[in-house]
Design brief:
Two copies of one chain form a homodimer. With 414 residues, chain A is an alpha/beta fold. Chain A has helices at 18-33, 48-59, 65-72, 74-89, 121-128, 154-166, 199-207, 215-224, 277-287, 316-330, 357-367, 391-401, and strands at 5-10, 37-42, 94-97, 104-106, 115-118, 132-136, 139-142, 147-149, 170-175, 196-198, 228-232, 240-243, 256-260, 263-272, 295-297, 304-312, 334-338, 341-347, 374-378, 381-387. Chain A has a domain at 5-176: 3-Layer(aba) Sandwich (Carbamate kinase), CATH 3.40.1160.10. The radius of gyration of chain A is 23 Å and the shape is globular.
Chain lengths: 414, 414
């Protein structure tokens, strides 16, 4: 077998202190000694990014986005240098590259830039010279030659983009969990680690609150056909592979259950039921950068209707101000806010061909006394908004009903 | 008067915390509002560089120099970003540039690179657009496209180099002292701030232990004719101007007294008095990167001689090991080490035409019971190595003898 390039990405927890950095260096050396060329992407150490954000807010209330990017990119600069020192000390030639040196070109949107190109000339040069290349995640250089960041979790995207550009065999994402689980093991004791998920399932899980991979990195991997392998940086377990549907070994109907407690719900009452009114509400929210997730509009009877939507709790202050103004303009009756909600999402590629899944999910929730406040679905996902207090019972009941603990591989619906 | 460019450099103490960063921003805005274009060079905040060095040593004992530079340059990245945030928050458009973005090109010597060129295209662009440009000091990009640092105190050199490249009217070095003094005011209560010193005097003072400016920055200023102005970042006092000799307003015979307690002395006994032996000793030391300062060789009587030299205390461990080996090879009798020494240096451009200065200095030291262990001179400097315990009495006596307190402008020698 010819030598292949393996891209390994280590998150902030994996490089949180000098001891862990040395442990990561050992793992990299092992991969190199196994005959692979290794390109590594790292995040900033532990809480560094949070500390830098805090420092910026001590200087002023609204730091300029371009300067915030200049500031935050110091974080990965520190971790790439320290990791290379550990590798070189261990006898492995290594070289650190900033996002800019690694050829990661982005658009000019500071704070959440998108990668537009990766020009891996220098990476290739260094790999050919036998060195391990350690690339700063989360950062790039814009088409205007300014330093940019990709937004929180952006290091996953950096790793996948580098893997695609260098034609890596696999992009290994090392993290502080063992892989992708059928549900959060802290809430569902029977949760089982998955050996594989498809890109689509992973996208839905990540978009529904599973924190193991960042949504954009999964999109990027799917679009460029990069095999992603989620593994623990603290043990040598097999982890979870994220692959194309037709390459998946097992084809479970349901893959997993994600949940999200970071959202709140706003219901606008007595909205005049005329064309353009809903557009008005959500355009105002979008203009104020409020990220709306689910939207439900009840059937109208008397020319007026209720519109409910969920939004991140972080956006709640802005969201309430926007809705207060809009209510007056459109002549709505008023609005109320619920912030003690949770969303549970059942995800599985097999759902497409099994129409009974939704009904089975609603039934098991009802049987356990859990009231459903909102429902939204995609072809491979069903999400329900419930009371936060019902979260644990709901997760456990749905997890058991669909045999996610592995006890019952063949689940019959309908 | 046409608008001129002023370069201002702020050291680590001046930007040590968010409050001081805001104060520096105020000072910059004042300079800009006075009608100048302002280019700022900053060091890393307070103890940042030391903390990063410490972190590196927690990872391994001998960090690779290239990676050390990658690590340390995170420090100024943080300070330039925070200072720009403060300026923008204050309503002043500003843009931070790394050494690389500012066009500071160096050789490839990691840890103590030399600036080979400054290509200020981007600085000019931003200045023309009305922005304050904040450049990261201490760092550059090498001709091999790697990140380099200029060594401790290198931010002064960055500032002078940028000032020369943009044709600045003046390079203001803001620091935590009021200017250049006739002696260290903590040891000599009568010490007086100088309004002006010449490049040559400043070079000798800096080279003899005065910490206010870094030697290389003064050399650079002299070679490129940059007027340097040392000022306090905590008050608006007039500071000290460093100028060419023929531009100096006052021409005191003696300008100041510097001291250095960071050196130790090694004496090699019974060295065979043959050609090439001294060369052998000092070549070995140079090959091991030991920085030798003063060298004294006693007259030989019996075919053997004693050789003494001073070296930084930091190099003492290496220096002793080298000398131990060399002693055996050349058949010397042995060596001893003294680390409780101090060096005092009297500096003044007028010394050239006043041959009595040296004798007057030795006399006042003898009169005060201070024994001189070694002597070295240049055309405008006389340095004496004495016991560290005698430092304060020696400084005060010499300071008074040469009228440096201003009480006696006309001092007669000989």
């Amino acid at each position: 077998m010819p030598v292949g390039i393996v891209v390994q990405k280590y998150g902030g927890t994996s490089v949180a202190d000098p001891e862990r950095i040395r442990a990561v260096a050992e793992r990299i050396v092992a991969a190199k000694e196994a005959g692979n060329d290794v390109v590594v992407v790292v995040s900033a150490m532990g809480a560094t990014t949070d500390e830098l954000v805090d420092l910026a807010h001590q200087v002023c209330a609204r730091p300029a986005p371009r300067e915030m990017d200049m500031l935050l990119t110091a974080g990965e600069r520190i971790s790439i240098a320290l990791l290379c020192m550990a590798l070189i000390d261990r006898g492995q030639e290594a070289v650190s590259l900033t996002g800019s040196q690694a050829g990661i070109i982005t658009d000019t949107t500071h704070g959440k830039a998108r990668i537009v190109d990766v020009r891996p000339f220098r990476i290739h040069e260094e790999v050919v010279a036998g060195r391990v290349v350690v690339v700063a995640g989360f950062q790039g250089v814009s088409t205007d030659k300014d330093i940019t960041t990709l937004g929180r979790g952006g290091s996953d995207t950096s790793a996948v983009a580098v893997a695609a550009a260098v034609g890596a065999e696999v992009c290994e994402i090392y993290t502080d969990v063992d892989g992708v689980y059928t549900a959060d093991p802290r809430l569902v004791p029977d949760a089982r680690k998955l050996a594989e998920v498809t890109y689509e399932e992973m996208l839905e899980l990540a978009g529904s609150g599973a924190r193991v991979l960042q949504v954009r990195s999964v999109e990027f991997a799917r679009n460029h056909g990069v095999t992603v392998h989620v593994r623990s940086s603290f043990n040598s377990g097999p982890g979870t592979r994220v692959v194309e549907e037709d390459k998946a070994m097992e084809n479970a109907i349901i893959s997993g259950l994600a949940h999200d407690t970071s959202e709140a719900k706003i219901t606008v009452h007595g909205v005049p039921d005329r064309p353009g009114i809903a557009a008005r509400i959500f355009q105002e929210l979008a203009d104020n950068a409020v990220n709306v997730d689910m939207i439900v509009q009840n059937t109208s009877s008397d020319g007026r209707t209720d519109v409910s939507f969920t939004l991140p709790t972080d956006d709640l202050v802005t969201g309430k101000a926007v809705i207060e103004a809009v209510c007056a303009e459109i002549g709505a009756a008023g609005f109320d806010v619920e912030d003690d909600i949770a969303k549970i999402s059942l995800v599985g590629a097999g759902m497409k061909t099994n129409p009974g899944v939704a009904a089975a999910m609603f039934t098991v929730l009802a049987d356990n006394g859990v009231n459903i406040e909102m429902i939204s679905t995609s072809t491979i996902r069903i999400s329900c908004v419930i009371k936060a207090a019902d979260l644990e019972i709901a997760l456990r009941a749905v997890h058991a009903r669909f045999g996610l603990d592995g006890s019952d591989a063949e689940v019959v619906f309908g």
